[in-house]
């Protein structure tokens, strides 16, 4: 359990809060690029880390992210005109008195003041730097003097036809969602379905890579995985080890990249990020984005995971944009009690909505001073300690938080993985550059991009 004081540190993200100051040191998703798709298009409201902002793509194609309230009298710039200025400059013009602000927050036109006035040169809207990568508009909201380079998880070189990014609104504190992502034990319960226990062995219950279909059976067979956590320079990675029906050990490795990101286990490995970004203390976005082109030349895993399950809705399988909510608290997540009794553990038809049901049902901010934790919570405990420690250290003496991009680290080498181990095999090398499956995939990508003449 946490003390009330530490729970407040962990969950509060507004300006001036200890955690809010930590989060502002990182480049953070602000919105999807497709939310501001065209130059001169409509502005978009953005609420991020408890601040109300407006994003717009000016007539030259540059994205701005500025305070929502006009510095003059507070009218919302969301209602502003996105247009070119009188001298060829461009920006968002307030509908109240015509003051215009560019993507940097500078006031570039003040037509309601005398033509001889220089007042506009002394007026600025708060603006944050942005960087577009991987279908996301990222921003840095911390002090200018501590801004580090953009953390490239691989999106900077991702081909345009491989860019996929989505976001999903969640009505609970961001830590509740993060804790769900770092809990491999819950898949054996929350996401269970009765028929998974009867899946026939397809010959992959042996050391090596199982089929995706068989992993459902593993989760149902061993519902109390052993958790092993390994600290890393970017946060930590952990293995959830389960005994398979044939007596082997399967491991699911999940990555945690401070402060927002998880990479969930997949066969043979995974580089897709699930990044939880606080809107404010009571709401968050779940961003999913492809960070790299991921090759699988041997077709490890076979048919996709959800092809074997009863969970098949547009929500789970959506591949881009803002995901609409169909299963929400107001309709009890469309729970079917008869299905819950006879087919699935929850009776909720959508896989991701099952996660929303439990994390949102805790309330806007869960009081962790009352909880009782077990060995299955090792990764959750590690994340909390890392974040609370970072917040206290930054507040105490300015110690920079972990996993910033100012130390020459390669964020493209962070990968989750899933494999059934050989006797005595150490799971810690899986997903790393030393993993033969990774080496094979990288060589395949090189060959695909640079074919030998005559091939």
SS-based structural class? alpha+beta
Q: Taking Cα atoms only, what radius of gyration do you get, to the nearest Å?
A: 24 Å
Element-by-element helix/strand order: HHEEEEEEEEEEEHHEEEEEEEHEHHHEH
* Alpha-carbon distance between the two ends: 61 Å
Structure described in brief:
The chain has helices at residues 4-11, 18-23, 174-181, 212-221, 314-317, 337-342, 351-360, 378-397, 436-449, and strands at residues 28-32, 44-48, 51-57, 63-67, 81-84, 90-93, 100-101, 107-109, 130-133, 136-139, 165-170, 226-232, 235-243, 249-257, 261-263, 269-270, 273-280, 283-289, 321-322, 416-421. With 455 residues, it is α+β, with helices and mostly antiparallel strands.
Question: What does this entry look like structurally?
Answer:
With 455 residues, this protein is an alpha+beta fold. The protein folds into 2 domains: 28-139, Rieske [2Fe-2S] iron-sulphur domain (Rieske Iron-sulfur Protein, 3-layer Sandwich); 155-448, no CATH class. 19% of the residues lie in helices and 22% in strands. The chain contains 9 helices and 20 strands. The protein has helices at residues 4-11, 18-23, 174-181, 212-221, 314-317, 337-342, 351-360, 378-397, 436-449; strands spanning 28-32, 44-48, 51-57, 63-67, 81-84, 90-93, 100-101, 107-109, 130-133, 136-139, 165-170, 226-232, 235-243, 249-257, 261-263, 269-270, 273-280, 283-289, 321-322, 416-421. Strands 11, 12, 13, 14, 15, 16, 17, 18, 19 and 20 form a 10-stranded mixed sheet that branches. Strands 5-6-7-8 form a 4-stranded antiparallel sheet, with no helix packed on it. A hairpin with a 2-residue loop joins strand 17 (273-280) and strand 18 (283-289). The relative contact order is 0.16. The model has no long low-confidence stretch (mean pLDDT 94).
């Amino acid at each position: 359990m946490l003390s009330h004081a530490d729970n407040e540190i962990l969950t509060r993200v507004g300006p001036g809060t200890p955690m809010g100051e930590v989060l502002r040191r990182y480049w953070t998703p602000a919105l999807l690029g497709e939310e501001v798709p065209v130059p001169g298009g409509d502005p978009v409201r953005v609420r991020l880390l408890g601040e109300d902002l407006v994003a717009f793509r000016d007539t030259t194609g540059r994205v701005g992210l500025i305070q929502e309230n006009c510095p003059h009298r507070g009218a919302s710039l969301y209602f502003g005109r996105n247009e070119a200025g009188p001298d060829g400059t461009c920006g968002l013009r307030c509908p109240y008195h015509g003051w215009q602000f560019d993507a940097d927050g500078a006031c570039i036109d003040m037509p309601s003041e005398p033509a001889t006035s220089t007042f506009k040169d002394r007026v600025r809207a708060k603006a944050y730097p942005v960087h577009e990568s991987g279908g996301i508009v990222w921003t840095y909201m911390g002090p200018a003097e501590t801004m580090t380079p953009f953390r490239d998880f691989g999106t900077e070189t991702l081909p345009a036809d491989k860019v996929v990014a989505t976001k999903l609104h969640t009505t609970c504190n961001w830590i509740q969602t993060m804790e769900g992502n770092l809990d491999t034990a819950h898949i054996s319960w929350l996401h269970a379905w009765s028929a998974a226990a009867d899946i026939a062995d397809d010959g992959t219950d042996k050391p090596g890579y199982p089929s995706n279909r068989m992993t459902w059976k593993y989760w149902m067979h061993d519902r109390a995985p052993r958790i092993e956590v390994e600290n890393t320079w970017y946060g930590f990675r952990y293995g959830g080890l389960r005994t398979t029906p044939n007596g082997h050990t399967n491991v699911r490795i999940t990555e945690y990249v401070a402060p927002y990101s998880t990479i969930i286990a997949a066969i043979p490995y995974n580089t897709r990020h699930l990044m939880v970004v606080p809107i404010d203390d009571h709401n968050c976005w779940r961003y999913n984005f492809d960070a790299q082109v991921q090759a699988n030349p041997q077709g490890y895993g076979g048919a996709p995971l959800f092809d074997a399950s009863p969970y098949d809705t547009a929500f789970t399988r959506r591949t881009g944009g803002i995901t609409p909510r169909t299963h929400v608290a107001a309709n009890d997540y469309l729970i079917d009690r008869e299905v819950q009794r006879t087919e699935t553990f929850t009776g909720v038809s959508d896989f991701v909505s099952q996660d929303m049901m439990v994390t949102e049902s805790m309330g806007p901010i869960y009081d962790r001073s009352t909880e009782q934790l077990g060995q299955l919570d090792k990764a959750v405990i590690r994340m909390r300690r890392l974040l609370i420690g970072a917040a206290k250290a930054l507040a105490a003496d300015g110690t920079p938080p972990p996993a910033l991009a100012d130390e020459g680290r390669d964020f493209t080498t962070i990968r989750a993985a899933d494999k059934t181990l050989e006797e005595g095999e150490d799971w810690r090398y899986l997903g790393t550059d030393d993993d033969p499956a990774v080496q094979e995939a990288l060589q395949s990508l090189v060959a695909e991009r640079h074919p030998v003449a005559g091939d």
